Amino acid sequence: MRKLFILTTAGLLILALSCDTIEGTGYISISSTPEGAQIYIDDSLTGEKTNHVFAGIEQGDHTIRLEYYDWPEWTAIIEVEKGETTYVDAALRTDTSAVYIKWIYDLPGNSTYPAIGDDGTVYLGSIDGLYAITTSGMLRWLFTTEEEVHSDPTIGPDGTIYFGCDDNYLYALNPNGSLKWKFKAGAEVLSSPAIGVSGSLYFSSADSNLYALTPEGEAEWKRKLDLPVNSNPIIGLDGIIYLAHGHWLFAITPDNSVKWIYETPTGSEIYYPAIGQDGTIYFGCEDSYLYAVSNNGTLKWRCDLPGFPYGPSINSDGTLFVTTTVWDDCCETGYFYAIDPSGNIKCKLYEEYCAATRCFPVIGGNDLVYVLITKYEYGSYLASYTIKGTLVNKTKLVDGYASSSISISQDGTMYFSLGSNLFAIQTSSFGLASSPWPKYMHDNQNTGRWGW
Question: Among 102, 123, 105, which residue's Cα sits nearest to residue 413?
Fold first, then answer.
């Protein structure tokens, strides 16, 4: 089900004044700052620009859309009453921080993190299968499964969509939603598949194996590990597969040879590795450190942070952006840091008691860094910062909890899932930053491959 929301970041003033008019109709007076925006009423171009007054408008609800050059369009739903004038005063955002909710798509249950296809289609899993959602927030198709989907989808260079399922299968779908092939593992497939340089797929399973498949779904090899594996493999520029497994980080060659294994000195679990420009692997750990391990398996540094650090995003200058959360007896404290390539804290972008930042930062094409924040008494927010740590914008989303990966399409639309809702947010960041690792799983297709 699709919901259309009234604009949240621009002012909307609606007043009603009595006037004489044609029976059953009213007036709309539309102004904007700046003026000169093209006016659409109910998706029809009027040929007029703001500021303008329209007469003879039928009573009832009408959709007003304003377009001003390449700025994000302004949309609102207003009501016209018989014999009255409805005044609309729109503030067209003049700053680069403008964000607003375009639509929200409701899924039947909790959803995975989204992936974006070349045509803008958004793919994500839920309790009954994999969904394909159009850029306007409508269902394109649903591929139903008998079990839940917890694996974030990955999109290949030919548009094939790959995802794992609790029914023990890894699925490959054509862009039209038809089944291309499926491969059965020995247990649930909770991880997202990564795509190697040759097109091979790498994924882990709860049967304790790391699998390698051809793009056609044929088994190349599998490697048995000690414990069930739910983490996502990632791929370095040299084709090396990196997999976090408990307190070990494995480096495995494409032909299934172990290059090296790094073990954390505290024996604490590793989460969400990312790869820097020089091949350094960065990851958060339950021991409250952010680690940097060279591509030969030796420790470069570790940075002590409060709480549990989530996976970092990496800017073009090597700056790492990472969120952490500290638990105490009554509440959480959320933090957001910028860390330089040598492991020194450059700045603390955010700190707040009774707030959580359990999410992955994303770096937009205009060098704004976005993060989801939950303030328990006030709901969830999308916050944006400059790369120097200045807060640019904070927009209220929902009353619930926020924890997600964020994707940003080339048209500036940001997608993320909160519980059973897929959000589409218009931003001024047109695509991801050109950096080594701008988001979770590297890119909007979730390939997990450096240099994709």
Answer: 102
- Ramachandran region, residue 135 (left: φ > 0; alpha: ψ -120 to 50; beta: rest): alpha
DSSP 192: P
* Same-domain pairing of 130 and 82: no
Residues 352 and 369 in one domain: yes
Region for 166 from its dihedrals, namely left if φ exceeds 0, alpha if ψ lies in -120 to 50, beta otherwise: alpha
Residue with tokens 């000169």: 36
Range of the domain at 203: 100-426
DSSP string of 111-170? ----EE-TTS-EEEEETTEEEEE-TTS-EEEEEE-SS---SPPEE-TTS-EEEE-TTSEE
> Does residue 372 sit in the same domain as residue 412?
yes
Same domain? For 80 and 146 the reply is no
Q: How far apart are CA 447 and CA 442, in angstroms?
A: 7
DSSP string, 275-314: E-TTS-EEEEETTSEEEEE-TTS-EEEEEE-SSEE---EE
In this prediction, the residues of the chain whose per-residue pLDDT falls under 50 are: 1-21, 94
Give the tokens for residue 248: 């070990």
Count of C-beta atoms within a 10 Å radius of residue 368 = 22
d(CA 392, CA 434) in angstroms, rounded, equals 21
Domain-located, residue 293: yes
Query: Is residue 248 within 8 Å of residue 227, measured between CB atoms?
Result: no
